[in-house]
Specification:
Elements lengths: L6 E4 L8 H10 L4 E5 L12 H14 L2 E5 L13 H20 L3 E5 L9 H19 L9 E5 L12 H11 L4 E6 H5 L5 H9 L3 E6 L19 H10 L5 E4 L4 H15 L2
Parallel strand pairs: 1-2, 1-8, 2-3, 3-4, 4-5, 5-6, 6-7, 7-8
Helix pairs in contact: 4-5
Organism: Brevibacillus porteri
Keywords: Isomerase
GO molecular function: isomerase activity
Length: about 270
Protein backbone atom coordinates (compact mmCIF):
# COMPACT_ATOMS: atom_id res chain seq x y z
CA UNK A 1 0.00 0.00 0.00
CA UNK A 2 2.55 2.57 -1.07
CA UNK A 3 0.30 4.93 -3.03
CA UNK A 4 -3.09 5.35 -4.64
CA UNK A 5 -2.19 2.94 -7.44
CA UNK A 6 -2.34 0.13 -4.86
CA UNK A 7 -6.12 0.57 -4.64
CA UNK A 8 -9.09 0.02 -6.92
CA UNK A 9 -12.39 1.88 -6.83
CA UNK A 10 -15.86 0.57 -7.53
CA UNK A 11 -18.01 2.31 -10.13
CA UNK A 12 -20.69 2.17 -7.41
CA UNK A 13 -19.37 5.63 -6.44
CA UNK A 14 -20.69 7.01 -9.74
CA UNK A 15 -24.00 5.21 -10.21
CA UNK A 16 -25.61 8.52 -11.17
CA UNK A 17 -23.59 8.47 -14.40
CA UNK A 18 -23.64 6.05 -17.30
CA UNK A 19 -20.91 3.43 -17.17
CA UNK A 20 -19.00 5.10 -19.98
CA UNK A 21 -19.16 8.49 -18.22
CA UNK A 22 -18.17 6.91 -14.89
CA UNK A 23 -15.07 5.31 -16.40
CA UNK A 24 -14.05 8.62 -17.97
CA UNK A 25 -14.32 10.26 -14.54
CA UNK A 26 -12.27 7.55 -12.85
CA UNK A 27 -9.56 7.75 -15.49
CA UNK A 28 -9.54 11.54 -15.09
CA UNK A 29 -8.96 11.08 -11.35
CA UNK A 30 -6.05 8.74 -12.10
CA UNK A 31 -7.42 5.52 -10.61
CA UNK A 32 -5.35 2.53 -11.73
CA UNK A 33 -7.79 -0.12 -10.52
CA UNK A 34 -11.47 -0.04 -11.50
CA UNK A 35 -14.16 -2.51 -10.44
CA UNK A 36 -17.24 -2.33 -12.64
CA UNK A 37 -20.36 -3.01 -10.60
CA UNK A 38 -23.00 -4.41 -12.93
CA UNK A 39 -26.06 -2.89 -11.28
CA UNK A 40 -28.33 0.09 -12.02
CA UNK A 41 -26.77 2.39 -14.65
CA UNK A 42 -23.76 0.11 -15.02
CA UNK A 43 -25.61 -3.15 -15.62
CA UNK A 44 -25.35 -2.64 -19.36
CA UNK A 45 -21.71 -3.79 -19.45
CA UNK A 46 -23.00 -7.28 -20.24
CA UNK A 47 -24.79 -5.89 -23.31
CA UNK A 48 -21.82 -4.00 -24.71
CA UNK A 49 -20.73 -4.98 -28.21
CA UNK A 50 -17.28 -6.41 -28.84
CA UNK A 51 -16.32 -3.11 -30.43
CA UNK A 52 -17.23 -1.28 -27.23
CA UNK A 53 -15.34 -3.83 -25.15
CA UNK A 54 -12.29 -3.55 -27.40
CA UNK A 55 -12.34 0.22 -26.91
CA UNK A 56 -12.56 -0.27 -23.12
CA UNK A 57 -9.68 -2.73 -23.17
CA UNK A 58 -7.57 -0.35 -25.23
CA UNK A 59 -8.27 2.46 -22.74
CA UNK A 60 -7.19 0.16 -19.95
CA UNK A 61 -4.01 -0.90 -21.72
CA UNK A 62 -3.04 2.71 -22.46
CA UNK A 63 -3.62 3.78 -18.84
CA UNK A 64 -2.33 0.64 -17.12
CA UNK A 65 -5.73 -0.17 -15.58
CA UNK A 66 -6.37 -3.35 -13.58
CA UNK A 67 -10.04 -4.23 -14.14
CA UNK A 68 -12.38 -6.33 -12.04
CA UNK A 69 -16.12 -6.97 -12.31
CA UNK A 70 -18.85 -7.20 -9.70
CA UNK A 71 -21.37 -9.55 -11.27
CA UNK A 72 -25.07 -8.60 -11.20
CA UNK A 73 -26.96 -9.15 -7.96
CA UNK A 74 -30.48 -8.49 -9.22
CA UNK A 75 -32.03 -11.51 -10.90
CA UNK A 76 -29.10 -13.81 -10.04
CA UNK A 77 -29.09 -16.65 -7.52
CA UNK A 78 -26.20 -19.12 -7.50
CA UNK A 79 -27.83 -20.86 -4.52
CA UNK A 80 -30.98 -21.70 -6.48
CA UNK A 81 -31.98 -25.26 -7.23
CA UNK A 82 -32.20 -26.38 -10.86
CA UNK A 83 -34.71 -24.44 -12.91
CA UNK A 84 -35.11 -21.19 -14.89
CA UNK A 85 -33.55 -18.96 -12.21
CA UNK A 86 -30.42 -21.09 -12.01
CA UNK A 87 -30.14 -21.34 -15.80
CA UNK A 88 -30.47 -17.58 -16.18
CA UNK A 89 -27.92 -17.01 -13.40
CA UNK A 90 -25.39 -19.33 -15.01
CA UNK A 91 -25.84 -17.63 -18.40
CA UNK A 92 -25.28 -14.23 -16.78
CA UNK A 93 -22.20 -15.40 -14.89
CA UNK A 94 -20.72 -17.01 -18.01
CA UNK A 95 -21.14 -13.71 -19.86
CA UNK A 96 -19.37 -11.95 -16.96
CA UNK A 97 -16.48 -14.37 -17.20
CA UNK A 98 -16.30 -13.99 -20.97
CA UNK A 99 -15.89 -10.24 -20.54
CA UNK A 100 -13.58 -10.63 -17.55
CA UNK A 101 -11.24 -12.89 -19.48
CA UNK A 102 -11.22 -10.47 -22.43
CA UNK A 103 -10.37 -7.51 -20.17
CA UNK A 104 -7.86 -9.62 -18.19
CA UNK A 105 -9.72 -8.86 -14.96
CA UNK A 106 -8.09 -9.68 -11.66
CA UNK A 107 -11.31 -11.09 -10.24
CA UNK A 108 -15.08 -11.34 -10.57
CA UNK A 109 -17.21 -10.72 -7.47
CA UNK A 110 -20.32 -12.83 -6.98
CA UNK A 111 -23.00 -13.04 -4.30
CA UNK A 112 -23.99 -16.54 -3.22
CA UNK A 113 -27.68 -15.72 -3.58
CA UNK A 114 -30.75 -16.56 -1.55
CA UNK A 115 -32.37 -19.48 0.28
CA UNK A 116 -35.85 -19.67 1.78
CA UNK A 117 -34.60 -19.61 5.38
CA UNK A 118 -31.09 -18.25 5.95
CA UNK A 119 -31.08 -19.48 9.56
CA UNK A 120 -32.07 -23.09 8.79
CA UNK A 121 -29.06 -25.39 8.62
CA UNK A 122 -30.59 -27.63 5.94
CA UNK A 123 -31.44 -24.64 3.73
CA UNK A 124 -27.96 -23.17 4.13
CA UNK A 125 -26.30 -26.52 3.44
CA UNK A 126 -28.25 -27.00 0.20
CA UNK A 127 -27.49 -23.43 -0.83
CA UNK A 128 -23.77 -23.91 -0.16
CA UNK A 129 -23.81 -27.10 -2.23
CA UNK A 130 -25.61 -25.37 -5.13
CA UNK A 131 -23.16 -22.45 -5.13
CA UNK A 132 -20.21 -24.83 -4.97
CA UNK A 133 -21.47 -26.81 -7.94
CA UNK A 134 -22.05 -23.60 -9.90
CA UNK A 135 -18.53 -22.32 -9.20
CA UNK A 136 -17.05 -25.67 -10.16
CA UNK A 137 -18.76 -25.36 -13.56
CA UNK A 138 -17.80 -21.70 -13.96
CA UNK A 139 -14.10 -22.34 -13.32
CA UNK A 140 -14.08 -24.50 -16.44
CA UNK A 141 -15.07 -21.36 -18.41
CA UNK A 142 -11.68 -19.79 -17.58
CA UNK A 143 -8.72 -20.56 -19.79
CA UNK A 144 -5.46 -21.72 -18.26
CA UNK A 145 -3.88 -18.42 -19.35
CA UNK A 146 -6.48 -16.28 -17.59
CA UNK A 147 -5.52 -14.73 -14.25
CA UNK A 148 -9.15 -14.08 -13.28
CA UNK A 149 -10.27 -15.41 -9.90
CA UNK A 150 -13.91 -16.14 -9.05
CA UNK A 151 -14.76 -14.68 -5.66
CA UNK A 152 -17.81 -14.90 -3.40
CA UNK A 153 -18.58 -11.94 -1.15
CA UNK A 154 -20.00 -11.81 2.37
CA UNK A 155 -23.26 -9.86 2.36
CA UNK A 156 -25.39 -7.88 4.84
CA UNK A 157 -27.75 -9.94 7.06
CA UNK A 158 -30.80 -9.37 4.90
CA UNK A 159 -33.69 -11.89 4.87
CA UNK A 160 -33.01 -15.05 2.86
CA UNK A 161 -29.44 -14.14 1.80
CA UNK A 162 -26.71 -16.76 1.90
CA UNK A 163 -23.19 -15.70 2.81
CA UNK A 164 -23.89 -13.12 5.53
CA UNK A 165 -22.04 -15.56 7.77
CA UNK A 166 -18.54 -16.06 6.34
CA UNK A 167 -18.68 -19.67 7.48
CA UNK A 168 -20.82 -20.37 4.40
CA UNK A 169 -18.20 -18.85 2.09
CA UNK A 170 -15.36 -20.81 3.66
CA UNK A 171 -17.38 -24.01 3.15
CA UNK A 172 -17.89 -23.13 -0.50
CA UNK A 173 -14.15 -22.62 -1.01
CA UNK A 174 -13.37 -25.90 0.71
CA UNK A 175 -15.92 -27.78 -1.39
CA UNK A 176 -14.70 -26.36 -4.71
CA UNK A 177 -11.00 -26.78 -3.82
CA UNK A 178 -9.74 -24.58 -6.64
CA UNK A 179 -7.04 -21.92 -6.72
CA UNK A 180 -9.41 -20.03 -9.07
CA UNK A 181 -12.00 -19.52 -6.29
CA UNK A 182 -11.64 -17.17 -3.32
CA UNK A 183 -13.44 -14.73 -1.05
CA UNK A 184 -14.01 -10.99 -1.27
CA UNK A 185 -14.28 -9.74 2.29
CA UNK A 186 -16.55 -6.72 2.72
CA UNK A 187 -15.65 -5.15 6.06
CA UNK A 188 -18.77 -2.96 6.04
CA UNK A 189 -21.09 -5.92 5.62
CA UNK A 190 -19.33 -7.83 8.40
CA UNK A 191 -19.65 -4.87 10.78
CA UNK A 192 -23.45 -5.08 10.45
CA UNK A 193 -23.57 -8.53 12.06
CA UNK A 194 -22.40 -7.61 15.58
CA UNK A 195 -19.63 -5.63 17.30
CA UNK A 196 -16.33 -7.45 16.86
CA UNK A 197 -17.49 -9.61 13.95
CA UNK A 198 -15.45 -7.62 11.41
CA UNK A 199 -12.27 -8.89 13.08
CA UNK A 200 -13.52 -12.40 13.89
CA UNK A 201 -14.77 -12.97 10.35
CA UNK A 202 -11.59 -11.62 8.78
CA UNK A 203 -9.54 -14.13 10.74
CA UNK A 204 -11.81 -16.90 9.48
CA UNK A 205 -11.58 -15.98 5.78
CA UNK A 206 -7.85 -15.20 5.66
CA UNK A 207 -6.82 -18.57 4.12
CA UNK A 208 -9.17 -17.92 1.18
CA UNK A 209 -8.98 -14.12 0.97
CA UNK A 210 -8.51 -12.72 -2.55
CA UNK A 211 -9.82 -9.15 -2.24
CA UNK A 212 -11.29 -6.58 0.11
CA UNK A 213 -14.28 -4.26 -0.22
CA UNK A 214 -13.62 -1.20 1.91
CA UNK A 215 -16.07 1.35 3.30
CA UNK A 216 -17.33 2.42 6.73
CA UNK A 217 -20.61 2.48 8.65
CA UNK A 218 -21.99 2.64 12.20
CA UNK A 219 -23.05 -1.01 12.43
CA UNK A 220 -26.70 -0.31 11.58
CA UNK A 221 -26.93 0.40 7.84
CA UNK A 222 -24.67 -0.39 4.89
CA UNK A 223 -23.84 3.31 4.49
CA UNK A 224 -20.69 2.96 2.32
CA UNK A 225 -19.09 5.93 4.08
CA UNK A 226 -15.50 7.06 3.78
CA UNK A 227 -13.15 5.04 5.94
CA UNK A 228 -12.84 6.73 9.32
CA UNK A 229 -16.34 8.23 9.20
CA UNK A 230 -17.95 5.24 10.94
CA UNK A 231 -17.13 2.81 13.74
CA UNK A 232 -15.35 -0.04 11.94
CA UNK A 233 -12.04 -0.80 13.76
CA UNK A 234 -9.78 -0.26 10.76
CA UNK A 235 -6.61 0.05 12.81
CA UNK A 236 -7.05 -3.54 14.05
CA UNK A 237 -8.12 -4.75 10.59
CA UNK A 238 -5.07 -3.24 8.88
CA UNK A 239 -2.80 -4.67 11.55
CA UNK A 240 -4.26 -8.16 11.07
CA UNK A 241 -3.88 -7.94 7.29
CA UNK A 242 -0.29 -6.75 7.62
CA UNK A 243 0.61 -9.46 10.12
CA UNK A 244 -0.73 -12.10 7.73
CA UNK A 245 0.96 -10.66 4.65
CA UNK A 246 -2.23 -10.04 2.68
CA UNK A 247 -1.24 -9.41 -0.93
CA UNK A 248 -4.67 -9.37 -2.61
CA UNK A 249 -6.76 -6.55 -4.01
CA UNK A 250 -7.94 -3.47 -2.09
CA UNK A 251 -11.21 -2.16 -3.57
CA UNK A 252 -12.77 1.01 -2.13
CA UNK A 253 -16.56 0.79 -2.41
CA UNK A 254 -18.08 4.09 -1.26
CA UNK A 255 -21.22 5.89 -2.37
CA UNK A 256 -19.32 8.96 -3.53
CA UNK A 257 -16.04 9.35 -5.38
CA UNK A 258 -14.82 11.98 -2.93
CA UNK A 259 -15.27 9.46 -0.11
CA UNK A 260 -13.13 6.98 -2.01
CA UNK A 261 -10.33 9.54 -2.38
CA UNK A 262 -10.48 10.37 1.34
CA UNK A 263 -10.53 6.66 2.21
CA UNK A 264 -7.31 6.02 0.30
CA UNK A 265 -5.59 8.97 1.98
CA UNK A 266 -6.58 7.67 5.42
CA UNK A 267 -5.62 4.08 4.65
CA UNK A 268 -2.20 5.16 3.41
CA UNK A 269 -1.69 7.28 6.49
CA UNK A 270 -2.84 4.50 8.83
CA UNK A 271 -0.85 1.86 6.97
CA UNK A 272 2.30 3.92 7.21
CA UNK A 273 2.23 4.05 10.99
Amino acid sequence: MRDKSSFAVSTYALFDLSLREAIVQLLHHDWKGIEIMCEENHADLLDWSWEQLKELKQQGNERGIAWSIHAPISGCNLAADSGPTREQTMDTMKRCLEIASFLDCTHVVMHAGEVEDRLADTERARGVENVSQALHVLTTELSAESRTILTVENVPPYPKVLGWNVEDLVRICRYVKSSRVGIVYDVGHAHLIRPGYAIDALQEVLPHLSALHLSDNFGKLDDHLAIGDGTIPFESILSLLKDNGFAGHWVVETKQLGCAEVSVERLLREGGK
